[in-house]
Amino acid sequence: MAPAVAVMTVALLYPIAYMVYASFLDWNPSQRIGEATFVGLRNYTSLWSDESFKESLQVTLKFAAFVVSLEMVIGVGLALLLDRNIRGMSVLRTIFILPMMIAPIVVGLIWRYMYHPTVGVFNKTLNSFGFESVPWLSDSFWSLTSIIIADIWQWTPFIFILSLAALQSLPKSALEAARIDGASGWQQIIHIKLPLMLPVLIVTCLLRLIDAFKVLEVVLVMTNGGPGLSTEILSLRIARTASEFRELGVAAAMSNYLLLVLMMLTIAMFVYTKISESRAEKLKRAVEEY
Questions:
Q1: Does residue 34 belong to any structural domain of this protein?
Q2: CB 251 within 8 A of CB 238
Q3: How many other C-beta atoms lie within 10 A of the C-beta of residue 161?
């Protein structure tokens, strides 16, 4: 295990330790880290009186909750709908995953142009039907909604592909037993398919949740956190604190808060995954014995 431990220590643990140490310093980019002043927990405690930080945290939580929930519902729904023998299914899968292959900067530019107040395709379509234009990126409500829509468009295929793979790996005996017992399509989905898919769905949800907390490029290109702070998610706030405000210690403290939240979510998800896997295994054995 020595080579793997060495690589992990150098490539993973050392940068994290460096960031944790920096969070206890009053450090700016013009200084070496050894020249920075040690301030203890001041960077951490000062953030809880910083209204901008608290608002960014609220925006991040709201954004992550909406995108992950909607992407899970749409992605799993599409997988259930297309879990059948369809001609050209391989081509369809390729088309579905295309948004995932596009660079986030390009995604942000594409959607920014489509949301343009005068020449964007959305407002032109609304105007052609006699409706008024929508301030997609200049209103605090619509700007966050616009970013959520763009994220759903890009990352729902990720949920779809993993959900479809989980569906196609389900034991055929369980589904056949349910059909013999007269279970309807909905009953098979609710009582057989979804419970057996749950371990995969939980891991998929966790991966998307972690990514949602770290979204930066799309928000930066589309709104740059505006109007006001209505779309300034925490990762953007960290970047601005480090680059614009030149407060590396405060930015490191923000990063550690974000890391702590993600670690708590990860631990909770893994515990729940173990419990769900145990339940799914019991269900599988019961069906096979039947």
A1: no
A2: yes
A3: 18
Q: How many domains does the chain have?
A: 1
Long-range contacts: 17-23, Cβ < 8 Å, 24+? 19/252, 19/255, 19/256, 20/252, 20/256, 22/248, 22/249, 22/252, 23/249, 23/252, 23/253, 23/255, 23/256
Find the range with the poorest average confidence among 149-153, 193-197, 249-253.
193-197
Residue 116 lies in a domain: yes
In a domain, 2, yes or no: no
pTM over 0.85: yes
Identity of the residue numbered 261: V
| Domain-located, residue 4 | no
| pLDDT, tens only, 18-64 | 999 999 999 888 888 888 899 989 999 999 888 999 999 999 999 99
For residue 262, give the nearest of 218, 212, 220 by alpha carbon: 212
Tell me the C-alpha distance between 190 and 238, whole Å: 42
Residue 83 sits in a domain of what CATH number?
1.10.3720.10
Its domain, for residue 202, covers: 51-244+265-289
Q: Quote the CA–CA distance of 5 and 25 in Å, as a whole number.
A: 29
Determine the pLDDT at residue 85.
76
Task: Count how many residues are written for the chain.
Answer: 290
